[in-house]
Design a protein that fits this description.
There is one protein chain. This protein is mostly helical and about 170 residues long. It folds into two domains: about 1-105, no CATH class; about 105-165. It has four helices and no strands. The chain has helices at about 10-40, 50-65, 70-105, 110-165. The longest helix has about 60 residues, at about 110-165. The radius of gyration is 42 Å and the shape is elongated.
């Protein structure tokens, strides 16, 4: 399932989004802690409990994204959604075909127009077939005449040889 990794619901993509969100949360916590420290008069580089908690949250989120339950859940969801989507698309195509047919035959004039169209199409197909049959017959007849002529010439030559030998 190489295509599963390119899906927006792929586990790797989800893990990357979760890790990115956790990093953003940690950097915001760091910024808040630095601003709080600056107001309180603490040294600019001092680490606070909020920063440590944010960093540990990032680590926990990164390890949590590797959970197999989430991965299997995503695959199970896809396994259900794919056939449902395929069935809905097939239904839409059938409905569009039925709707086209209904609109084509909704009145007697439309039905007669469709019948004339079918007749023209049938006439065209018949003429094309007759033309192809005529061509095939002509080529067979031509080939037959040529072989008949060749065999007659061969018989005449052989008869001439036989008479010259006798």
């Amino acid at each position: 399932m190489a295509s599963a990794t390119t899906s927006p619901k792929a586990p790797k993509a989800k893990a990357a989004r979760k890790a990115s969100a956790a990093k953003t949360t940690a950097s915001r916590a760091r910024a808040r802690a630095t601003a709080t420290q600056a107001k309180a008069g603490h040294a600019k580089g001092a680490r606070t409990r909020a920063v440590h908690q944010a960093e540990s949250a990032v680590r926990q989120t990164q390890t949590a994204t590797r959970e197999t339950a989430g991965v299997f859940g995503d695959y199970a969801e896809r396994a259900v959604l794919i056939p449902v989507g395929a069935a809905l698309i097939a239904r839409d195509k059938v409905l569009s075909g039925v709707n086209d047919t209904i609109t084509s035959y909704s009145s007697t004039s439309k039905a007669q127009a469709q019948l004339r169209k079918f007749e023209r199409r049938g006439t065209t197909a018949r003429k094309r077939l007759e033309r192809e049959v005529r061509k095939a017959r002509t080529s067979v007849e031509r080939e037959l005449r040529k072989r008949r002529q060749d065999s007659t010439e061969l018989a005449d030559r052989l008869q001439g040889r036989i008479q010259s030998l006798v």
